[in-house]
Write a structure and sequence with these properties.
By secondary structure, this protein is mainly alpha-helical. The protein is built from 15 helices and 7 strands. α4 packs across α15 (353-373), α7 crosses α9 and α10 runs antiparallel to α11 (282-290). The radius of gyration is 28 Å and the shape is elongated.
Length: 380
């Protein structure tokens, strides 16, 4: 071996060094960029927890959401305790059972804690029966509960129904209706927006005038007018899908307008011209060549639009034009606290506003993170 070969071997990078300086793939760049956005990560974790809870509400909800108990009406949220009256510390949290007594002056039931009989909170307890995986599995295991008495961590309503159970089950409607409406909105808005940009001419003019006409109406009155079309005698599940379609048919206009602007730039791209020369028809060019290149923008826009759908459903349900009993949603729960007397004497009835606010903020944080991820090579 001569001196030249020896120098080349000395200068050749080691396998570990070569692996360290290997360029990252686009997918890894996107994940690294998303991971740096802490608020987006927090939003993703919160949304994952919320959708996990609504996927198996019977496991997380301590009671059936529609079953009341007249002995416990307008009970304030019970506090978790770790210290007893003698100052002893308990590793397992506990609650005190409640005893109700009517106040002769106000005629309201006042609940006092039975300090002599603390009830430890136990996990994975047996409770009411519920099903999993669309009725394929039947079980009665709840995440937590007490051996005796009751546990109302979020209080009860005017019929003695556990608010925490109702909030968890109400999230099934509010969160699911947002996703279903977004699926319809993305399909309609993307197809019409891309077709409008690609066709141009009179078709583009008509589509844009229709979009401007729909967007010129104030949102809330338009939602109310469209929701009023749904027959009041429909079953709850029909009303659910009706509200979903109504919200999607209104909100698709914003996505279509944005997609049109992006598609106008792609219309003159080389690969689109090559597809036209090769004899590809308009549907293939739109759905195979243009829309896949708009997927990152569609994902970001759809994520940011989910909170609007959820708030719209909550507003309609609050006004009595949305989800009907026996189904419930966060808007329905908030509508039960629309009286000043209830708001003053039972402020915990506004608890459903907390997950609603957290959901909207989480989707906004997640959308901002995805907006940055959409261009992983930028210097921002």
């Amino acid at each position: 071996m001569d001196a030249t070969d020896t120098r080349q071997e000395a200068q050749a990078p080691a396998p570990e060094e070569e692996q360290a300086f290997r360029p990252l793939s686009v997918r890894r760049l996107m994940w690294r960029r998303f991971r740096r956005n802490r608020m987006a990560m927090i939003g993703a974790v919160l949304l994952s927890c919320m959708y996990l809870m609504i996927a198996v509400p019977g496991f997380f909800a301590p009671y059936e959401f529609d079953r009341g108990n007249p002995r416990y009406v307008f009970v304030a949220p019970q506090a978790l305790h770790f210290l007893d009256d003698e100052g002893g510390f308990h590793v397992r949290p506990f609650v005190y059972p409640l005893t109700g007594k009517r106040d002769p002056a106000t005629m309201r039931v006042v609940y006092t804690e039975d300090r002599e009989n603390p009830q430890a909170i136990r996990f994975f307890v047996r409770g009411y029966d519920y099903t999993l995986f669309f009725g394929l599995i039947e079980t009665n295991i709840q995440l937590f509960g007490v051996d005796e008495g009751t546990i109302f961590l979020a209080g009860t309503d005017g019929r003695g129904r556990d608010m925490l159970s109702r909030i968890i089950n109400g999230g099934r409607v509010s969160l699911t209706i947002g996703l279903l409406a977004i699926v319809i909105m993305v399909f309609v808005g993307t197809a019409i927006g891309t077709l409008s940009a690609y066709r141009g001419g009179w078709f583009d003019t008509i589509v844009q005038r229709v979009i401007e006409l729909i967007r010129s109406f104030p949102q809330l009155p338009l939602w109310m007018a469209m929701a009023a079309i749904i027959p009041p005698g429909w079953p709850s599940i029909w009303v659910f899908f009706g509200i979903t379609i109504v919200l999607a048919m209104i909100e698709w206009t914003s996505l279509a307008r944005e997609i049109r602007g992006k598609a106008l730039a792609l219309k003159t791209a080389d690969y689109v011209a090559a597809a036209e020369v090769a004899g590809a028809r308009a549907p293939r060019i739109i759905f195979v060549h243009m829309i896949p290149n708009l997927s990152s923008h569609i994902l970001v826009t759809a994520t940011l639009a989910v909170p609007t759908i959820i708030l719209a459903e909550s507003a309609l349900s609050f006004l009595g034009l949305g989800i009907k009993a026996p189904m419930t949603s966060w808007g329905v729960l908030l509508s039960e606290a629309n009286k000043i007397e209830i708001f003053r004497l039972s402020p915990w009835m506004l608890t459903p506003a907390i997950p609603l606010i957290l959901t909207v903020m989480s989707f906004n944080f997640l959308g901002d993170g995805l907006r940055d991820v959409a261009d992983p090579h930028s210097s921002r």
